[in-house]
Amino acid sequence: MSLIVHKYGGTSMGSLERIKNVAKRVAKWYAAGHKIVVVPSAMAGETNRLLGMAKDINELADRRELDMLAATGEQVSSALLVIALQNEGIPARSYAGWQLPIRTDKSYTKARIESINGDRITKDLNKGKVVVVTGFQGVDEDGNITTLGRGGSDTSAVAIAAAIKAEECLIFTDVDGVYTTDPRIEPDARRMPFVSFEEMLEMASLGSKVLQIRAVEFAGKYHVPLRVLSSLTDPDMDLEVEKNSGTLITLEENTNMEAAVVSGIAFSRDEAKITLLGVPDNPGVAHSILDPIAQANIDVDMIIQNTSVDGTTDFSFTINRSDFARAREVIEQIVSTIGAREMIADDKIAKVSIVGIGMRSHSGVAAKMFRALSQEGINIMMISTSEIKTSVAIEDKYMELAVRALHKAFELDKEPVKL
Ligand code: ADP
Ligand code: ASP
Ligand code: MG
């Protein structure tokens, strides 16, 4: 008997038929003697629908109220799943984040989990129940409902798995594992049976939405074995086959280590860029631009600064598109105080990245990336690099072309040679 956390995403919970299938799959694991905690997302499209209504009223709606609103999606799907489980004859019970509680900080719309009290979960499991806990949400120390950022149910699942010391956390989704890139963009993408934790962390942080970055961080920090697998297969499929399907995120240097220099392409469509032109080039200028952005709790990603001969500088930075309206408002207020000539705001930016542990020991990888992009006529606006990745910011209309060109240039459709 094992203690296992299952997470089911929006598509997996997308209709009553799908919810009934999730109940059947959970019933199969339960019947095999496992203790199961299930963390569902809201039904597909629901979080967008809810947040869309708020945006239609006010683009800059109060973020506390956005969380109050968005958290309802997971409450609906959790209760429906318990009803479907009970229909299968399985004793089950659902909890909202605040009922456990899942304690977070106060950063509405992107809160971080601080602690989880697993007592109620453990008590119910010991009574033979399946426990369903809403994904995506928590509660701050003053009792306000918070949410964990888009895709946050992955993080809820891994954090719960860590809190109750589960043997494994299974992320059931609408693809059958982690691919070399999003298979919806590149049909020749290849499923990887194993991905190193480090590479998964980079891929997630660079936009691969198959796992939310904080979920991967938690899995690393608390050594939670993590597997990504499909929820769209026959729920009655053989349990032993299912247990070994999908992609395992491996913490150890594994024996199946692939020899590819670049192992995956990540991308994010949700980028925006703000540029200040003609800023007097004095010490402290970067701070005077970015400090108000930090005060507004907006994360900055890429930064570029060019000094011209006339003693002024052009300063650009990228942010997540969901923070665009707020960032623009913040910068508009400081343009004149810092003496900049003008601000240009562009929310049609995408970021494309190549990721691979092998980049550490190989040179010329970035140059190969830039050549592949130039052959497609794609202009690079910004570049950032780390030991195991190179990212470029480009016009978002070229994003899919860039992903496919890079996938081909690095031959990711082909099985890499084993070391
Ligand atoms: P869920 O609702 O189950 O959380 P998401 O839509 O958040 O599912 O994540 C799964 C999606 O991630 C896939 O449908 C796929 O389009 C996308 N994706 C992006 N990059 C990858 C990748 N490298 N491997 C697999 N899927 C990817
Ligand atoms: N429902 C939330 C979202 O759409 C959380 C999740 O699905 O993981 O972002
Ligand atoms: Mg997701």
From TrEMBL:
Binding-site positions, ATP: 7-10, 173-174, 179, 184, 209-210
Pfam families per record: AA_kinase, ACT_9
Catalyzed chemical reaction(s): L-aspartate + ATP = 4-phospho-L-aspartate + ADP
ACT domain residues: 274-357
Keyword Disulfide bond attributed: no
Amino acids binding substrate: 47, 74
GO cellular component, one term: cytosol
GO molecular function (one): aspartate kinase activity
Alphabetical list of NCBIfam families matching this protein: asp_kin_monofn, asp_kinases, PRK06635.1-2, PRK06635.1-4
Protein name: Aspartokinase
Top-level taxonomy: Bacteria, Pseudomonadati, Pseudomonadota, Betaproteobacteria, Burkholderiales
